[in-house]
Specification:
It is built from 12 helices and no strands. The protein has helices at 2-10, 14-27, 30-46, 50-58, 67-84, 88-101, 105-121, 125-137, 143-160, 166-175, 182-196, 200-207. The mean pLDDT is 94.
Length: 208
C-alpha cells in the first residue's frame, strides 16, 4: 500500500497518495510506519498542508533511525519547515543539528547543498554560491546535492550579474539524476540572464 501511495505521488495524485498512505500508517507496525509517514507527509506538503506534514514527521523518533533513514526523514522535514511553514531559521538550525549526527561525507554534502538552497531563497546569494562551490568541487557529491547546488548557484549567479557562469551551472544541474522541480530554479536563472543581457526574445522563448 505504501508503494502504491508513492506511485500516486509520482503521478501527481496527491489526494489518492494521502488516502493510501494514511491507511497504511493506521495499519502499520513500527518498522512499516516510517515509510508510510514519509509518503503521507509528502502528500500533505504538496497540498500546502505544511502544519499537518510537520506533525506527521515530528512523531518520528530520530534516535531509532539508521543514518539512511535520518536523511530520508530530515530532508523533507527541513524543506517543509522552510517553504511550507515559512520558518527559515528553524529549518536551518534543524539541518545543522542533523549534520552533527550523520557521519558519511555524502550525507553531510547533501545537507550542505540544501542549506545552500535555503541561503539562495533567503536572498543570501553570495553565501549560496560559496556553499555550492564546496559541494560541486567535492569528489563524492551525490547527484541530489549536485542538482540543488548547481541550480541554486545558477540563479544566484544570474542575480549577481555573473552571467558567464550561469550556462555551465544550468547544464550541470540538468545533467544530474534529480532535476525535478529544480527545473523551475534553472528556468529562472536562464530567463534572468537573458533579460539582463538584453536578449528579450530569447528570454521569452526560454520562459515558454
Amino acid at each position: 500500500v505504501v508503494s502504491a501511495a508513492q506511485e500516486a505521488l509520482q503521478l501527481g495524485d496527491v489526494a489518492l497518495a494521502e488516502r493510501l498512505a494514511r491507511g497504511a500508517l493506521d495499519r502499520a507496525d513500527q518498522s512499516g510506519a516510517f515509510d508510510a509517514r514519509l509518503a503521507l507527509s509528502t502528500a500533505l506538503a504538496w497540498q500546502g498542508r505544511g502544519r499537518e506534514a510537520e506533525i506527521v514527521l515530528g512523531a518520528v523518533d530520530a534516535a531509532t533511525l539508521t543514518e539512511e533513514q535520518v536523511m530520508a526523514w530530515a530532508l523533507p522535514r527541513a524543506a517543509n519547515q522552510f517553504w511550507m511553514l515559512s520558518e527559515p531559521e528553524r529549518a536551518t538550525a534543524f539541518l545543522q543539528n542533523v549534520r552533527r549526527r550523520v557521519t558519511t561525507p555524502s550525507a553531510r554534502i547533501t545537507l550542505d547543498a540544501l542549506s545552500g538552497t535555503f541561503a539562495m531563497n533567503a536572498g543570501q546569494v553570495r553565501r549560496a554560491i560559496e556553499i555550492a562551490d564546496e559541494v560541486l568541487t567535492a569528489p563524492d557529491s551525490p547527484d541530489m546535492a549536485v542538482a540543488w547546488s548547481a541550480s541554486a548557484a545558477a540563479l544566484s549567479s544570474a542575480r549577481m550579474g555573473r552571467f558567464a557562469e550561469v550556462g555551465p551551472l544550468v547544464a550541470r544541474a540538468l545533467s544530474s539524476e534529480y532535476p525535478g522541480l529544480l527545473r523551475f530554479t534553472v528556468g529562472m536563472a536562464e530567463t534572468t540572464t537573458l533579460l539582463m543581457t538584453g536578449e528579450d526574445e530569447a528570454a521569452l522563448d526560454a520562459a515558454r
